[in-house]
Amino acid sequence: MRAAPSHAFDRPGAGAGALDSTTLLRLAVILSIWLIGRPYAGATGDAVLYFGRALADLDPGGVGADIMFQLDGQSRFSLFVPLYDRALAVLGPSVAVRLTSLAAMILWLAAAALLAAHFARGRLFWASLVLAACLPFSYGPSFALHFGEPLAIPRPFAEAFVLAGLAAALSGRWALALGAMVVGALFHPIMAASGLAILFVGACAVDKRWIALAPAALLAAVVAAALRLPHADRLLTLVDADWLELLWQRNFYLFPSLWPLEAWTTLAAHAATLIVAARLSAGFQRLFFVAVLSVGLGGVAGAALLGEQFPLLLVVQAQIWRSSWIMAAVAALAAASVAASLWRGGSAGRLTLAFLVSAWMPGYPQASLVAAILALALQLGDNPRRDFSPRVVTALWICVGALAGKWLLDGALFLPALIPADSPSVLSPLVKMHFHALPISALAMIWAMHERWTPPPILATAAAILLASATLVWTAQGAPSMSPETVRPPVEWSQRISESPGPIFWLGGRSESWVWFNRPNWLADLQDAGIVFSRALSMQWRERAAFALDRGLARDHIIDYRHEATRFPTLTPSALDELCRRSDRPAWIVAPEMNGLPSARSLAAAVWKPEFPYRMQGPQGRWTPVTAFVLARCAASK
Fold it and tell me: Which of 491, 498, 505, 528 is closest to 608 using CA atoms?
């Protein structure tokens, strides 16, 4: 997949230029923007799952007794797990999480730079990295997943190796490309599958004899499935109705028909950018963009057909819609080159660019979807180079500017309402709103397209400030509510828990039982993360969740996540009695006390008052301070 010697993206000079003081300054700016745009989040989101997996491996009789790890059908397929286990044992929880997250970010940015160098040269290369750092980076069911996540999880490592492999393939180094893909697959086979598919398309273009491998591989897979070989048998196995119902309710992101409009708008913006990039390039680079687009859209279409209409177990578990991550990443990296080429391409190009900018703009999904369609209509029409009146071009750009201005103004005026003052984390949700994306991206493009414009000396000072800000963002102590691994509870809490072995049922909790007491959860929302990979886990988790839901011990959306929670779990005498009559009862129940909830102190074996600020999502769905934890003991209620 070596790029053609001449195409619209080529610019004089090398991608990054010589390693001099100017290059180092630019590296500092890019790294700072990258890290500020992806602030350290601690062991949150999916990171808490791998953190728990490491704790489980280090203490099989403690956290390892959690049903999530006893019935785990996922994490053993990743090289990340044993490496992370070792890091946690040597460095300790807080340091291991932070350094692993930082390593993922640096590796991802380095791999992105290798790939971006094939799309742009000189200043445009640097602008490409700025836009990749600033533009919205979600994919799939956009509320949940992002490329280049600042988390201690295997996905960003796998993505980095895939990007590096694609860069190697574009340079014609096929063995290196395949090696990088294999390493990526060792970290996360699902994320690396899209890279391998793109590599296969490139190999077929170079040597059409490779095409014969596709039907041969398909036949081998069908034979293996028919012989009921391990894992291959899932290719011909349908997800049964009970399991499928729970997945539709709880893990609805697995099914594209349930995605919100924002997800399709994001996908349309990525697809439109890649289609325009393909039209502006030539040779194998054009093939590269077409391959990325085909693999990304093909995965989503395959998930809709074989994951929903004919829910094959292997397809549902492989989550082939995740191939859209590579679309999102490559579109962001190519955006600067596309923008520069369109701006220089006359009135039709500038109109197309205006529509693409609107397509990427967050906050207005309907308008963004229409803009993506119009951008494609202009480029795929009979005469994509036709001239338009300068007044039409100017008017459209005024509209785009007004839309962007309204977005920024809304953010300034309504930010206090968007991020409540009692939120345990302010920077992370703020960054995900992408208010910074428009001004920073615009400045980067202006700088890139004015080669004679020399930045003022104050740029060095700005770089220093950015680097200092990034350092603060990544060294700041996380809120205990979001990152419980950063604090330790009083010793007497652990002493009391040690009186009775067994799991803890922390009402409304997540990883507190794991992190603070090395105990398994009896029931927690996060245990559902692996239900798509284990039917046994799904059924046991659902039974406990339904039991707790019927007795007011769980939020009312614990099983069906498609609805907003309207009730916080509360501990009552009758619920405690029924819970403790179960053969699989927990040893302890922890009930948070907060304003708006009835007190459970009459059931307390102990009452803990946290020595650090701790908040949970309370009865109204807002982050509410916890005034105390009521500790109830099942052993006393048998």
Answer: 491
